[in-house]
Design a protein that fits this description.
The structure holds 2 protein chains of 2 kinds. Chain A is an all-alpha fold. Chain A has helices at residues 3-14, 22-26, 30-35, 52-73, 79-110, 114-126, 140-148, 156-164, 167-172, 184-191, 201-210, 220-230, 273-286, 288-302, 309-321, 326-334, 350-361, 368-377, 401-418, 424-432, 438-445, 450-458, 461-464; strands at 233-235, 250-252, 262-264, 267-269. The longest helix of chain A is centred in the first third of the chain and has 32 residues, at 79-110. In chain A, α4 runs antiparallel to α5 (79-110). Chain B is α/β, with parallel strands linked by helices. Chain B is 31% helix and 12% strand. Chain B contains 13 helices and 11 strands. Chain B has helices at 21-25, 49-52, 61-65, 93-100, 119-128, 140-145, 189-199, 203-221, 237-243, 250-265, 292-311, 382-392, 398-405, and strands at 37-43, 80-81, 87-88, 104-111, 159-161, 176-178, 272-277, 318-324, 344-349, 357-359, 380-381. In chain B, strands 1, 4, 5, 6, 7, 8, 9, 10 and 11 form a 9-stranded mixed β-sheet that branches. In chain B, strands 2-3 form a two-stranded antiparallel ribbon. In chain B, a hairpin with a 5-residue loop joins β2 and β3. In chain B, α10 (250-265) packs parallel to α11 (292-311). The longest helix of chain B has 20 residues, at 292-311. Chain B is globular, with a radius of gyration of 22 Å. The two termini of chain B are 37 Å apart. The chains are: A mainly alpha, B alpha/beta.
Chain lengths: 466, 420
């Protein structure tokens, strides 16, 4: 395979899409260009962005007012005032969401390490939280900055721990409210005839989605036991006797933690308090089904919709042998011959498509808002997957007829705006390199206008796939 | 759909899309008996059947459900009465009217063959129709429409997915369109023609483009029957009068079902449609008769009402199946919600439905009766409902159903679901 093809695959399949000039640099050593990106955490400059703690602290007064209004509502029928108050939280959180979405888009457009940036997106999607839930609206972006980015080039165990103790995940999967039935708070409530107790959402999704995978061998009893283990994993704040910790940060609440040993996947965990959950997470991070689950998802993202058993096994083996050393796992991905032989193209997700198109056109930062709108139009609003499973990752999930027509309409509309300032004939080899087909070159060359030429380039089969 | 879409009519599809077949596809067939329409509404996230169809007469219901329990009919915020045992969530006023008009069947303690509690595997089984998850990439509805009888009246696209992409239940070799509202400007015919030419050597893209063009043509050229089809996003006077202001979240659903109705009303429209909804995963703060879940059910109910209105006369030959991947725990959890369960509720609605009954072999909610001590025990296989509808409504042969659509499923067919 020619080095021109390899450079295009490194930039487009592993990265976020070539910019003019990129392929010349990458062609010197495509695999080396990828490996060089695995050395440092792809942090995002927090300039102008707030931490989760700051964001949730800012929400506190609004939430307090809402609580007070709810209490007062018994003797007030002012529905308009109640509604106006209810709107204040989204009004406060939405600009923060947009700031973070813009920053994420800017990072993706400007990154010199697009493979590392794609890995951030991969893990953010693996550990999905969604702004469909109001509680997460302001902090999905800070979750990615704080829990994902620092650990993408580290060990899986550290990444897992950062995620499961982050307020965004605890809120998204409802763990902050889960109470051990035999805990102090559980017993006190039971004495008063009130039902407070377990919520098994986080425990189940950690097992099913974050670590072992759905075929990882756990049972309903394991889910329930793990939910008990995780009681007390919560967020600071609270009132009266429940006040504990700092608002907007992780806190362990012993008074809601279910006491006693729990058995999970045939192992008995007798540790007290938070140590119990830490022990379970450590075992889950090192379990063989977790290695296979992560290897399968990475291989599906970078190699093929249905990756070969041999590739999955090889990558899982590296995961296990290195104790979840993620750069070593990524290196094993790069070593897959199938990823490079063009036999299993991946249909771009809407996010892939918009990012590669924007990088190819080198659009200016002022069009960031349009970029975010484009994700929305194509069906992939930032930080808004429909479920904790994250966005799906097979071609058939994205290549619907209506989805294709929207990409065609979007590229045409972009081409109408930029047609006189970009030369599609020059761009085609710069963006697609060795993967540019004669058919597309001819179609672009015979276009009736510069704008039409651009539209034909960005709707070409080899540009719709990576 | 803007008028400029009509320019797309003249784009010639490349060889990979089947050449000139597209013109022949829209030749009108003579109206026959089997011009039935079938719609599947998927409630993703596991709808709480015990709140949607409260079994208020069950002696254990109120105890298990605590503040989530829906009270008996006649009480404040009580259920809408069905048969003395079960009621409907107070938000489901249209479904209740349809029940009274004998156009709705309510199923309870129903489930797919899936018995674990993963949403994603549960949805896979619900859509694939096979007992184990991830067994196929072809959905049961795609396999079913491939077996539509020769005399069936429908267009070249046998089904339409109301979204940008096609969900598993409709995926497969039978041609399926997808539709979603577009805010993007139209593209000129010449550019589109060149794109079509470029896709001629790419079978997948050629097929998708052909489907998109066919759907656009259909959406744009459907005659607007003023009585039957309210303008998108507008609710008719009757809807407003009966339902009051549409509940939050309803507008998007209504736009989608109104477009679906435009497709389904056409003789050369698709025989089946699938409409996906999400947000039914109520672990926390689910609420009782006035809570979050009730609000979502209200949006669904408003969409169903708008759908019937938009379908006009076509409603009489339509069956709508509403189902979810599994139910939720019988008891409320510790955070005023419910966790993943097993037995669920489902509905059949439409003018073709022989309605007015609750079909439930009720296992009860006593500790001993619960599945694995926590969930409503399923006593009816959802595939029995589906295959009966496919046989009696879409007139698909039992041989096709038993061999291809639900192979190896020994569960019996039901009777009297569809009007003769």
């Amino acid at each position: 395979m020619s080095v021109e093809v390899q450079a295009a695959i490194a930039a487009n399949r592993f990265g976020l899409g070539a910019r003019p000039g990129d392929l010349d640099v990458i062609a010197a050593d495509p695999r080396g260009w990828l490996r060089a990106q695995l050395k440092a955490a792809p942090l995002l400059s927090a300039e102008g962005l707030q931490s989760t703690e700051q964001i949730l602290r800012g929400a506190e007064p609004i939430q307090r007012q809402q609580r007070e209004a709810r209490r007062a509502r018994a003797d007030s029928n002012d529905a308009a005032a109640v509604t106006a108050l209810a709107m204040r939280l989204p009004q406060y959180l939405r600009p923060i969401y947009l700031d973070d979405s813009r920053a994420r888009l800017r990072a993706a457009l400007e990154s010199e390490r697009p493979f590392a940036e794609r890995l951030v997106h991969f893990w953010s999607n693996h550990f999905a939280v969604s702004v469909d839930k109001l509680a997460v609206l302001g902090i999905a972006g800070s979750f990615e900055r704080e829990a994902i980015r620092p650990h993408v080039m580290g060990h899986f165990h550290d990444l897992l721990l950062a995620v499961e103790t982050h307020p965004a995940m605890l809120l998204y999967l409802d763990n902050q409210q889960s109470v051990g039935p035999d805990s102090l708070v559980g017993q006190r409530a039971a004495d008063r005839g009130r039902n407070v107790g377990l919520n098994e959402n986080l425990a189940r999704e950690i097992l099913e989605l974050h670590t072992l995978g759905v075929d990882g061998g756990y049972t309903q009893a394991d889910v329930t036991g793990f939910a008990k283990v995780l009681t007390g994993w919560s967020i600071g704040g609270g009132q009266g006797r429940l006040a504990r910790g700092e608002v907007g940060t992780f806190v362990f609440r012993p008074e809601v933690h279910e006491p006693g040993a729990q058995t999970i996947l045939r192992r008995r965990y007798a540790e007290a308090d938070q140590a119990q959950g830490l022990a379970v997470l450590a075992d889950l991070a090192g379990a063989a089904p977790t290695a296979r689950h992560i290897a399968t998802k990475l291989a599906r993202h970078f190699i093929a919709d249905d990756p070969s058993a041999a590739d999955v096994q090889r990558i899982a083996h590296v995961f296990e042998r290195t104790g979840g050393d993620l750069p070593a796992v990524y290196a094993a991905l790069i070593d897959s011959p199938q990823a490079w032989d063009g036999s299993s193209p991946k249909f771009k997700t809407p996010q892939d498509y918009v990012l590669s198109l924007s990088r190819g056109l080198a659009v200016a930062p002022e069009s960031e808002m349009r970029g975010i709108a484009a994700f929305d139009l194509l069906g992939q609003r930032p930080f808004a997957p429909g479920s904790p499973a994250g966005w799906p990752d097979r071609s058939s999930d994205w290549d619907g007829a209506s989805a294709l027509m929207k990409r065609i309409e979007l590229s045409d509309s972009v081409a109408q705006k930029l047609g006189d300032r970009r030369n599609a004939m020059q761009l085609a080899p710069q963006l697609l390199g060795g993967t540019l087909t004669a058919a597309t070159r001819e179609s672009v060359a015979r276009a009736a206008s510069p704008a039409q030429a651009l539209a034909l380039l960005f709707t070409a089969p080899e540009f719709l796939r990576r | 759909m803007s008028s400029t879409h009509s320019r797309r009519r003249f784009v010639q599809l490349g060889l990979a899309a089947g050449g000139g077949a597209l013109c022949a596809r829209y030749a009108f067939a003579a109206p026959a008996a089997s011009d039935a329409r079938f719609v599947f509404i998927i409630l993703r996230g596991a709808l709480d059947g015990l709140s949607a169809v409260p079994p208020y007469a069950d002696p254990d219901y109120a105890r298990l459900r605590e503040e989530l329990a829906i009270a008996a009919p006649g009480s404040a915020n009580g259920a809408l009465a069905l048969d003395g045992r079960f009621g409907l969530n107070p938000a489901l006023s249209f479904v209740h009217e349809a029940y009274a008009a004998r156009e709705a069947l309510v199923f309870h303690a129903v489930a797919s063959p899936y018995r674990e509690r993963s949403h994603f595997d549960g949805q896979d089984v619900l859509e694939s129709g096979l007992p184990a998850p991830h067994a196929t990439q072809i959905g049961w509805l795609n396999r079913a429409v491939a077996g539509l009888p020769a005399g069936a009246v429908h267009g070249a696209e046998l089904g339409v997915a109301l979204g940008q992409n096609v969900p598993l239940v409709l995926r497969g070799p039978a041609p399926i369109a997808s539709w979603s509202p577009s805010k993007l400007p139209d593209i000129d015919e010449d550019t589109l023609q060149r794109i079509a030419d470029r896709y001629a050597s790419d079978p997948v893209l050629a097929q998708r483009l052909a489907e998109a063009l066919a759907t656009d043509r259909m959406a744009e050229s459907t005659p607007m029957d003023a009585a039957a089809a309210p303008a998108p996003m507008a609710m008719s006077a009757t809807t407003m009068a009966t339902a009051g202001a549409p509940p939050p979240g309803a507008a998007r659903y209504i736009e989608t079902v109104q477009t679906a109705a435009r497709f389904l009303r056409r003789e050369d429209g698709p025989a089946v449609a699938v409409f996906d909804t999400t947000g039914w995963d109520t672990h926390f703060n689910e609420g009782g008769a006035q809570g979050q879940l009730t609000q979502r059910l209200g949006a669904l109910d408003a969409a169903l009402r708008a759908f019937k209105e938009s379908l006009g006369a076509t409603w009489s030959r339509t069956t709508v199946l509403i189902a979810t991947e599994f139910g939720r725990t019988a008891a409320a959890n510790g955070t005023r919600g419910t966790d993943h369960g097993t037995g669920a509720a489902a509905w059949l609605l439409g003018g073709a439905v022989q309605g007015g009954r609750v079909i439930a072999d009720w296992p009860g909610l006593s500790a001993r009766a619960l599945y694995e001590g926590r969930d409503l025990k399923p006593t009816l296989d959802l595939r029995s409902v589906i295959k009966t509808v496919l046989r009696d409504h879409l007139k698909i042969s039992p041989r096709t159903l038993d061999a291809d659509v639900f192979p190896g499923n020994g569960q019996p067919y039901l009777s009297d679901l569809i009007r003769a």
